[in-house]
Design a protein that fits this description.
The chain has 357 residues and is an alpha+beta fold. The chain folds into 2 domains: 3-127, Creatinase/prolidase N-terminal domain (Creatine Amidinohydrolase, Chain A, domain 1); 132-355, Creatine Amidinohydrolase. The protein has helices at residues 3-15, 26-33, 80-83, 101-110, 121-127, 132-155, 162-175, 237-256, 263-276, and strands spanning 20-23, 45-49, 54-59, 71-74, 92-95, 115-118, 180-181, 186-189, 210-215, 217-219, 222-223, 226-232, 288-290, 297-301, 314-317, 320-323, 327-330, 333-337, 342-344, 354-355. Strand 16 (320-323) and strand 17 (327-330) form a beta hairpin. Helix 1 packs across helix 5, helix 6 crosses helix 7 (162-175) and helix 8 (237-256) runs antiparallel to helix 9. The protein is elongated, with a radius of gyration of 23 Å. The protein starts with a helix and ends with a strand. The model has no long low-confidence stretch (mean pLDDT 97).
């Protein structure tokens, strides 16, 4: 168990008047216990008490040798209503946002004297603020991502396809000992870059194309995520202008990040800069998302998040402009919030770069 993390979650539970919390998200259970299980369709949960009691519910098929958390084992032939309800002893129980209805509803029916409320924010808010080990792993993952971005840019050549670049990238990550990808790589040439979620296909790189590369890896369980936009051999003057507007928006937002600043103000700094040049309607997504054990964790950098930035939060800053059917540009870094500013985790140059010349 990560006792300090559990302690912080239990403090959140007390703030919300919860005596017990059922955590069923496998990633959150791993975050709190260090035990990694992929449960499939089977029930897998950690029951936390506000006084830092912990109880795991695990199918006998799960390999849990060596773990020290008190565990209730059950078999496939047992009804979940006979497994969990005997341990629910609270008037107010927090339930995980990811808890399947096929488990939650029978448990609620068997625990009619208890009220079940959404309680996963108790874990999510703790996960949003990284400890020293997590920050170092995020730095390492981003360092690898930087290296692979530079190697991928150097790999670009006339006639290469988006799909070939994606396969080459996977080899780069494997050579670095990564466990996998944070997400499917986004590699878009030319007009494909006007789609913020384009996935690599057989489009061939040609002179004058912009190249949007959105990539991330998983190293020691922690994700990285970065986007850079390049040009192949030449760049249209209009696209150069838009590129520099987006780069400036990225830099303005990062300059504003620091402990205590409302997160919505960070989004506004980038959004207002882009809008001032007439491209506001083409910046179609939030400015960023939180990241850690998952590429997209609870929390975002958007106009509706009025919460203050907290030291050691980690999130992306990724403004973009997308002209569908023509062109697109996005520039993304990950940042760690500090008392006086932020630590930028990505170091691939953001000055406009024309490849192949």
């Amino acid at each position: 168990m990560y006792k300090e993390r559990v302690k912080r979650v239990c403090a959140k539970m007390k703030e919300r008047g919860l005596s017990q919390l059922l955590v069923t998200d496998p990633v959150s259970i791993f975050y709190l216990t260090g035990i990694k299980v992929h449960p499939g369709e089977r029930f897998w949960a950690l029951l936390l008490g506000a006084e830092e009691e912990e109880l795991l519910f695990a199918n006998r098929l799960f390999a849990l040798s060596g773990q020290t958390v008190e565990t209730v084992l059950y078999s496939d032939s047992e009804d979940i209503r006979s497994v969990v309800p005997p341990h629910i002893k609270s008037d107010m129980v927090g339930a995980d946002k990811n808890m399947a209805a096929r488990f939650l509803l029978p448990i609620m029916e068997s625990c009619r004297e208890s009220s079940f409320v959404l309680g996963s924010d108790c874990v999510d808010e703790v996960r949003a603020v990284k400890d020293e080990m997590e920050k170092e792993r995020l730095r390492i993952s981003s360092r690898i991502n930087d290296e692979c971005m530079e190697k991928l840019a150097a790999f670009m050549h006339e006639g290469v396809t988006e799909r070939e670049c994606g396969e080459y990238l996977k080899g780069l990550y494997a050579a670095q000992g990564c466990e996998g990808l944070s997400f499917d790589p986004g590699i878009a040439f030319g007009k494909n870059a006007g789609d913020p979620h384009h996935k690599p296909d057989d489009t061939v790189l040609k002179e004058g194309d912009c190249i949007v590369i959105d990539i991330g890896c998983i190293k020691d369980d922690y994700c990285s995520d970065m986007t850079r936009t390049f040009f192949w051999k030449k760049a249209d003057p209009e696209y150069v202008r838009i590129y520099n507007i987006v780069r400036e928006a990225n830099e303005k937002a990062e300059a504003l990040v620091k402990e205590g600043v409302p997160i919505c103000d960070i989004d506004a700094a980038a959004r207002e800069h882009i809008a001032s040049f007439g491209y506001g309607e083409y910046f179609t997504h939030r400015l960023g998302h939180f990241i850690g054990l998952e590429d997209h964790e609870k929390g975002d950098v958007s106009s509706v998040n009025t919460d203050p930035a907290v030291r050691d939060m980690v999130f992306s800053i990724e403004p973009g402009v997308y002209l569908q059917g023509r062109f697109g540009v996005r520039i993304e870094d990950l940042v760690i919030v500090t008392e006086e500013g932020c630590e930028i985790l990505n170091h691939v140059d953001k000055e406009l770069c024309i490849l192949g010349v």
